[in-house]
Amino acid sequence: MTLLSVNVNKIAVLRNARGGAFPCPLDFVRRALDAGVRGITVHPRPDRRHITAEDVLAIARALPAGVEFNLEGNPFAPERPGYPGLLALAAAARPAQVTFVPDGDGQITSDHGFDPAALPAGLTEQVAAFRTLGARVSLFVDPGVVALGPLRDAGAQRIEIYTGPYAEAHARGDAAAALAAARRSAEAARALGLGVNAGHDLSQRNLADFLAGVPGVLEVSIGHALVAEALVEGWATTLARYRAITGG
Fold it and tell me: What is the domain count for the chain?
């Protein structure tokens, strides 16, 4: 079984495009819980272009026991008006998992992982600070990276494999090499005692093939494709189909 963690960032994008409070990400979180989903992901960015700090806290307060809250972001991004920093958000929201992503302000979306050979100074201290809050720490990595010892030594407990290249290859009909790269990273992580998550551009079209080709994935976070598919199929139907693929 693989846990499905539904990312509701795109609901916030739609709200923010018009202004106001509709549609409300929290409403869609509740609908996801009603559909049996047991994982919710958010990725607040300092520029507040989608999920905001206020959203994070509202969602955290609403989640019942047994639902995993996954907070993504760059722990090195400095605080600024409207964004208190990832550690402060985690201290207030107390997520079960925090996923470190090395993205910058100018990125449209996350598009690369940490390089284990060139980890940022202070990463070990950042991991320790989040783990002190009771959060499991996962680090975003590129597929094919296998020298993961420095991530484990920094205190990480899981990796999240960036699946964007796999999704692009799958759409072209030539996913074998990308799938093999992701599998190598997963095997290397498990050999070090690290759990394996995955995410980015996963969809109903490519998810089953990914999970079959990379056994043992503990969790997938899916937002962009899921929301786009739900525009056609409906929220509850789309979530049911994803849960059927993941088993969780």
Answer: 1
